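Below is how a single chain appears once it has passed through the pipeline. First comes the sequence as given, then the structure the pipeline wrote out for it. We keep one example in the README because the format questions we get most often are answered faster by looking than by reading.
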Amino acid sequence: MNSPARYLLTVIILACLAAPTTAFCKKKKKGKGTKETTEQAQVVPSSPPTAAPTSAPTQISGSLTTTSGKTFEAVTVKRVDPDGLLILHKDGAAKVLFTELSDELQAKYGYDEAKAKAFQAGQAASKQEAVAADAEKKAVEQRNQEQAKQALKIQGKVIQVVKEGIILRVDPWEGRTKGRPPLLMGGADYIFVVGHSRQGAKVDGDTVDVDAYPSGVFSYANTLGAARRLKQYQVIKTFR
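Resulting structure:
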């Protein structure tokens, strides 16, 4: 074989030997690429970020100094009122008005002057009502105590039932019943009782048994037109 022919044959043999090697390399590269793609697909995406929870401003770090110069240590805001802050501090609790706080704290806790004044007016009215109610309660208690001291046990027979109360003839009993006020001593005396809880059911001749205290005089005209005046008693407890 001459040299040109031998050279050509050598080229063909080298080309044939090189062809599968090239294909193999391409296959490996393709496989490697596939493997990388697969590995990437298996990566689990992270959860979307969530917003950090926000909390209402309930704490003041360190100390709190009012515009008048008073200082509270280790302050925590317990409640926000329209007119100020109820705070807990190292030595106890206190109410600090917004007018005693800095502009920064006023803005932080939403101070509104009009709302603060309305709130304070309502608080003042409620306090006055509470004071009045307490005074009335004490007055009633005192009045009841005074009435109890004057109370008497009254027993008698119904003579006549009128709109205002009962005309009663007192029974001539003597002595005192245990646990009851002293007995009103009678002897066919006539009196007038008001406030009997079962007045509407009473008729002439019925028995009446009550605890009552003197409450003035009852004036009326009898069947003959004559003016009569009887001692009046206010019932505080009905037994019969």
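The mean pLDDT is 80.

See the next section for the split statistics.
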